């Protein structure tokens, strides 16, 4: 039975939720690992010394291996408990804890699952209270995580109403998870989601890293741009032309008309706006207008064998209403799809290519079915196409959830909605940059509501199963009041990726959604490679992060790491299928990577070669000390 609870856990605050289902172990489940001072590694004791309560590893008996945990509460007047590392969970998930237990005297300790929210508050517990166990007996607790829970842990507990000595061994804490693939295939494993994370200690936290921002690069300086609504739909780098190309849009307050505009640049900083000669503006075609409808998002597709289809665009058009597909040989002269509109309804859209499944995808705004959560809100749907002619029916890809709503309420807003969802393939997964709209009011007539917009970060493993957002901190936050980005920020639909950086062009507004007296600029957001999110340790004491099993398919283990403390860095040990340290690959053997590097190689007693482990499944236990670990991979 899950019991509601209040208060804050003394062991430390909870961290972000795991949006995907999990099947994660806990650190040192068999109590075999002991610290230099004789404590149980990876577990956190709480005792009442005045009452004689103790927690210790013991070799006097064990269910398996050499050691078990021994909890002693001689008087029933104190408290003795032992808590595991945290495991991420999502409210509503079914979870299971088990432990092998034996009573040496008195009353057996309780086996408890404790659920915590983002603030660290205890939001529920589930437990079993065994009788006397004269032999090793498995005890099991099952529960459904309460809504609002984001992390859970096992607690072995002897309370003030019990007295006795208990032995505990082989603890598990598991929950459902979709099929897990241990293969890395050389891809960098980021920490945007928790797919590869089994456990992490409380002193390892997920940190979202805002970018380095450039000065404005693409600004409104033409008569048809001279208003408050110039925004960049797509900015990409074309390697064949060796230049940047931008498709952006405006809604002119002079003639109340949409225009799609084109610009190009050799460096992404200084832009030219060629006179295309395609459409008149106030009697002249000397402008960069490529469309007199709402602008679209563009994809450069050099692999298409038809040169007339090298560029592809999806755009909203009111007549007939829907999302229309276009192709082009040069990104300027566009041919509409004969089957338009290819997707119903219309508003914000993003177009992408899935290189893993070799298909196109469109993420669009669609109305929710009546009486369903999210009705009348901005919700992002996804459709797929193999040929960019016929698209599948749109299905929900990302909508605001209870965490978003609670965050909006806490900041004084009335709602949170997903305004747009640009995304791109990156290191075997997809990175999403959802524009999260905090609704604060109705705004001026015709504005569609008032509020602010910031960009978060999300991850999807296959696009079909939705998006994971363990952290809701902004990736591209608004800036201070009075700055050019203080009202709204939204990312363009593509990223520019090289060996050392990831760049995303974004539009910033100096006013909120419900105003018409705002101005916009396009700037560049730059991260180090893999640098959206890190697993971070402040350096007060080392933190541990243990991965899910991964297949050794490379000869060396690489990390992207940035030490923040003078003696900071990362080292690692390798664990076998029984979570035992593989000889020669322990933390004691590991050489700490101490420098800020995009590609550091782990070594053990001077050796880097993992060839002897080829084909084996191992877990990697990283020790992070005063550093940010951004990614790891095998090569």
List the topology elements.
Layout: E1 44-47, E2 54-58, E3 68-73, E4 80-83, E5 87-88, E6 94-106, E7 110-116, E8 122-128, E9 137-144, E10 151-158, E11 164-174, E12 189-190, E13 197-200, E14 205-208, E15 212-213, E16 218-219, E17 230-238, E18 243-252, E19 257-265, E20 289-291, E21 297-300, E22 311-318, E23 321-328, E24 335-336, E25 349-354, E26 359-365, E27 380-385, E28 395-398, H1 402-410, E29 415-420, E30 423-426, E31 429-432, E32 435-441, E33 450-455, E34 458-460, E35 488-491, E36 496-497, E37 501-509, E38 520-528, E39 533-537, E40 543-547, E41 550-551, E42 557-563, E43 569-575, E44 590-591, E45 597-601, E46 603-604, E47 617-625, E48 627-634
Antiparallel strand pairs: 1-4, 2-3, 3-11, 4-10, 5-10, 6-9, 6-11, 7-8, 7-10, 12-48, 13-40, 14-39, 15-38, 16-38, 17-18, 18-19, 19-20, 21-22, 22-23, 23-24, 25-26, 26-27, 27-28, 29-32, 30-31, 31-34, 32-33, 35-37, 36-37, 37-38, 39-48, 40-47, 41-47, 42-45, 42-48, 43-47, 44-46
CATH topology category name of the largest domain: Tachylectin-2, Chain A
Strand content: 35-45%
Number of DSSP-assigned strands: 48
Overall pLDDT metric: 88
Supply Rg: 28 Å
First-to-last CA distance: 47 Å
Which of globular, elongated, flat, extended, rod-shaped describes the shape? Answer: elongated
Q: What's the level 1 CATH class of the largest domain? A: Mainly Beta
